[in-house]
Design goal:
By secondary structure, the chain is mainly α. Helices cover 65% and strands 6% of the residues. The chain has 12 helices and 4 strands.
Length: 343
């Protein structure tokens, strides 16, 4: 997304969480947790875990080599491990990443990022709901003409309209909170997802990692991506509900109707009288965009055998823009609410 388009439809907070440096930090945190949990389980020595942690603490990556490794291997972890092993005491180098596979590190790092993103979503949803409630208190009993099938229907009150915007968001916030327990879990399966590479220590190591990373535990899920797709569906619901809000505001602010006005609305290069409902329009566009991406993400469920490079790559291409789009929808909804002035 270009800087200009990002100013309109992006989100700097989510972009920072998903940036390469932030993702690298998350992967390194997972490697430390893996080493320490493995030492607790007696599978590597305490000295090895300490050596790994010390090497990672002062690690400065060669980003060009990581990018070249991503191109060659389809994942960044092999190139990352080559750089890390060069820093670890040779006596303990084999203990680094022992038993794990690239997907264990990348998927668990994703969960760390999503935990931060969930915090941001919940805070914005809570703020947005508070603004809707304040608007309902101040103007809820005012009359409003309802419309069905784009025609004037019967008189109603603003409270009914505001409730129709807010109630879905309450459900989405509840679903997001519930999803923390089912989605934000450690992925640890080893090369083929059966934990056999950990020689009987896999469950203990996974539990130890979960405690250190403040995540839940689960059976290996490297090729069963329904929790990720369920997240995508929820993101589409959030942005879709906000798109409905945007569509209503754009219609209600039409000159011919004038049920509300937008303070600080968009201007025109040739018509000085225009007050374009920019934030409302973008909410509609983002809702439609996320709905399309949700369908694409659903196809990332189709893994061949124990891992699919194609499905995994499709997920990487699809989920990040959905996360950004949802955050942008929440941000723009707060902006739009601040602009609304009821007629």
């Amino acid at each position: 997304m270009t800087p200009w388009l990002s100013a309109l439809a992006g989100d700097n907070d989510i972009a920072a969480i998903l940036a390469d440096d932030a993702q690298l930090a998350a992967m390194l945190a997972v490697e430390v947790a893996l080493a320490e949990a493995s030492a607790d389980a007696g599978w590597i020595s305490d000295d090895a875990a300490a050596a790994i942690k010390n090497a990672i603490a002062g690690f400065v990556p060669d980003h060009a080599q990581l990018a070249a490794g991503m191109l060659a291997d389809g994942v960044v972890v092999p190139a990352l491990l080559r750089q890390l092993r060069a820093r670890v005491d040779p006596a303990h180098a084999d203990a680094l990443h022992r038993g794990a596979t690239s997907q264990d590190i990348i998927d668990t790092a994703l969960m760390l990022s999503l935990a931060k993103i969930f915090d941001l979503y919940e805070a914005r949803l809570t703020g947005l709901l508070a603004e809707f409630e304040a608007l309902a208190r101040s103007a809820g009993e005012r009359p409003l003409m309802a419309h069905t099938r784009m025609q004037a229907a019967l008189p109603t009150r603003w409270r009914a309209k505001i409730d129709s915007w807010a109630e879905p968001l309450r459900r989405h916030r509840q679903a997001l909170t519930a999803m923390r327990g089912t989605l934000l879990v450690v992925q640890l399966g080893g090369p083929v997802g059966d934990r056999e590479s950990f020689e009987g220590h896999g469950g203990t190591i996974a539990a130890g990692m979960a405690r250190r990373l403040d995540l839940g535990t689960a059976s290996p899920w490297q090729a069963t991506r329904d929790p990720i797709v369920a997240l995508g569906n929820l993101l589409a619901l959030i942005s879709g509900s906000l798109g409905k809000f945007g569509a209503d505001v754009a219609l209600l602010s039409q000159t011919e109707l004038g049920a509300l006005k937008l303070e600080g609305a968009g201007g025109s290069s040739s018509m000085a009288h225009k007050a374009n409902p920019v934030a409302a329009e973008v909410l509609v566009a983002l809702a439609r965009y996320n709905a399309g991406l949700s369908g694409t993400l659903g196809q990332a469920m189709v893994h061949e055998y124990e891992r699919s490079g194609a499905a995994w790559t499709l997920e990487w291409l699809t989920l990040p823009p959905m996360l950004v789009t949802t955050a942008a929808s929440l941000r723009l909804s707060l902006r739009l609410l601040e602009q609304i002035r009821l007629a």
